[in-house]
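ok so heres the complex, two chains, lmk if somethin looks off
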Amino acid sequence: MTRYFLAVVKIEGFRGINNEGDPLEIKFRADAVNSIFAANGLGKSSLFEALTYAITGFVPKLDRMVAAESAKDYYANQFHSKRRAEIVLTFRPDDGGADVTVKVVRETNGKRVVTSPSGYANPEDLLAALDDETVLLDNHTFTKFLLDSPLDRGKSFSALLGLSKLAEVRQGLSAVSDTLSFNNDSGSKVLDAEVALSKATLAQAMIALKQDYFGLIGKQLVEPIIPATIGSDTTQALAGVALLKDQCDGQLLSVIDFDKLSATIKTAEKSEDQERLSAAITEIAALEALAPGTTEATEQTELKDLCKTKQQALASTKGASFHDLYAAVKQVFDDGSWMHEAVCPACESTPSESPYAIAEKQLKQYQLVDDTENQIKDSWAAATWPSRLQKLEAKLVKPADAGTNQHGRLHGLLTAGQATVLDVDTAIARLQLMELARVTRLSELQAEKVTIQGSLPPSLVHLIEQVERAKRIKGSLKSVIALTASIGAASKKLAERKRWKAFIDSACATFETAEAGLSERLIKAMTTQYKGMYATIAGSVPIVPSLEQKKDSIDLHLKLEKFFTLKNTGATPLLSESYRNAIAISIFLSAALQRKPAARFIILDDVTSSFDAGHQFALMEVLRTQVGLPLHKDGLQVVILSHDGLLEKYFDKYGNSIEWHHQHLQGLPPFGSMMMQAAGAERLKPSAETFLNAGQIKQAEPLIRQHLEYRLIQIISKVGIPVSLDFAIKDNMKMVGHALDAIKDGVELYKAAGRLVLDPNQQAALGNMIVPAMIANWVSHYETGSGSSLDAYVLLDVLKSCEDFADSFKYDCSCKQQPGKTIRKYYKTLSSKHCNC
Amino acid sequence: MPFEFETLLSAAQNIDKFYKHLDTIDADFAALLKKQLPPILPISDVPAQKKSTRQQFNEAVVKHLDQPKAGATK
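and the predicted structre for the whole thing:
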């Protein structure tokens, strides 16, 4: 498989890098550790962010900002006239193939466009693959690693090992297997309630059916019932009566017209009593069907208990505003925006209990309220007594008194989430009242029935009863068939949902276990390596770190096997920042080497901030010998970005050797241009002249300043002009005025000693024309805080004066080292040449 | 033998292996998961977005579960 290395990056208009029309170009070596030094504020982090954005499509620092910060507006350089950022990456394959160039543009409107000027077919895919195989590490990331919760640390660790995609899938599985959410989203709760209610109704219908069947046929109805047989038995029983034979013989029960049967009997008897008897029997049957169910008391107790639980949970909360507050507190801890475990992010107080624990406890109360509310609704929907109350009120309460009905009232309150135990009690009391009324009415009807039966011939009374039973059998049978079908359909749906839920639960558990197992094996594989790296970086201090991940858990615990004389202690509370970070970087580097597929390059930004010189050098040695190519043959292409002056001494030592490639970033961000010192300082003057000739003075000014500083420091360096200690070690002293002063003082010193090598013409020009011109036209204007610009012609003269100034420290060399050529070269020192020319 | 990820495989290869493992348990559900899960990844940490994504997934799952199965009789 082809392995690509980063060869060149060109950046224009991104973050602190302006370089309008003249992109910053940085070359990397595939076979060496690449270090880039830049003083603070000189665009080092912008370079890291540009690489991050090009490869991953985002900049974490900007993404972490709140929406109000409008971070998306700050990808492009704020001083670039087009507010358009362009990053061109050139990758070199290790199989000898042609370089691949990928251009990533962030348009003015924020759109990201990826193309390949070299013609690579799928540049987006290449970047996505590199995203999987690149480790981008800045100080924030690894500092946070140790301070994170074990869960977040475990997640970061998965990402480190190239397992982010596994983590994504795990989080996805975990989200979609959440039971409560699934039951809500899939309608399972509603189906459950429907099935429960239908089963209760079916049971009642079966009881009625069995009673009537026994009454009509004289045989017990045995389950499972066969509707066709019941229908046939019923019609045969009716057809056995001579009066009804014509209408019932050979008919299906479903087509028999019971009103017509009643009319036939009424006509035969010609009696109003028969009609009253029929009505009484019907009403008695209806009221008997509304007898209390066996589960009512349990249902009522459950509903009351739930209401009570909810009221208690609600009383423990502090209302909706605090709900939002606690959620926000938990959120800032969870997403890492707030790192002080003991301090409340809302009020910055230090409570005795952890603010996170307080927020979690409070949020649980709110969750309990919501959960109980859902349970109340479910309980109400599945209970049988509400339906009985509703029917009794409809039957027994006069329309004029319907306003006192409790079913509708309680249903409304429950739906709105406002029902209390008292409301439920009121409805139960109402049901008891209705039950009394039902029993009373039933008793009245039965007395009336007995009276009417006494006044009618016994055979006719019996016939009327039989017809009414047959009529009820027809109704019950219809209900039983419909309810059985609906229960069957709903149960089938429920079974499918339960089967899916079991599948997704099992998939989630399997995935988590497998991921944890993989992490565990990778930790085991890298343990020797990270411990060795840590020992190299931290030196002989008797501290041994240990990473622990329990089986079947993502949580990653960092401990110390040894801390001086102590064993098995916590790491974060005991270790100083420097040692913490040494452990973190050791883990990160080992993880990068363990990554599958192997990481191709690792980019480190400012990872040595908390290290002293000794630890810094040790870390560099680890990178050089254990991580980076070429000394580690299976290692990574390493890119280190640093602003540390001490570390640059190490870079200088190895810089531009076989295994190390060092460069120095300089420039004037965010306005001016930036460049690599080795490559581009000579471009400053022509770029500035181009701007001046176009009348673009503001764009030219920073380039002129850079050119003057570069040229004067070059003179000091080439000619070995002695400078003060401040000038030598402080970057902010390296301004044009200070450099001119240093050179002037050196010249005066050598002149006074009679040893100055400059010829008389050079000395005269320097003293009488060039230096005064530069001071008048630049130093006295631009280094005294003046806000206005000088004329373009004056600034062109400044550039010319600067070159004349440099030329005053050069001589013509035509000695045998350059046969046939005369070259203009700097004096060796203020008192000598390189040769005898 | 419990299902395991392999250290020598990339994350994408291990995920493929996982789906193949599910395929041996329930091919219909494995195909449903493989079709519906990737489009909703990564899951947002923002509760409202997380809820909406989950609902979108569960709706697709329920639609699949409720549709008549091939070969099923009425």
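quick notes: The longest strand of chain A covers residues 4-12. thats all i got rn
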